[in-house]
Specification:
single chain; about 0% helix
Length: about 120
Amino acid sequence: VQLQASGGGLVQAGGSLRLSCAVSGTSGRINVMGWYRQAPGKQRELVATIVGDRSRTHTDAVKGRFTIARDNAKNTVYLQMNSLKPEDTAVYYCAADRYYTPPAAHWGQGTQVTVSS
């Protein structure tokens, strides 16, 4: 299973970005997808997960601002990030697992998100 993350960049506080994670190399359904982030000097933290098509969770720090979603036809999971804050600056990783949550079996390469104040 391969995960290819994209969509990071530099944005001003209050702006928006949408991260994408394309899944390939599997014939079966990947049931659990998620996004993590790791800021400099901090541990990696789970940002959001989606189980199946609709069961979504978001960490408290991003609730109301970030939304995880998936497009099964495109084998892609998204993280829509609105009202970005400087503290959202981090490398964002997508992860996948066929069954277990939080997902950790397969990882993407990471995409940098930088929010300027």
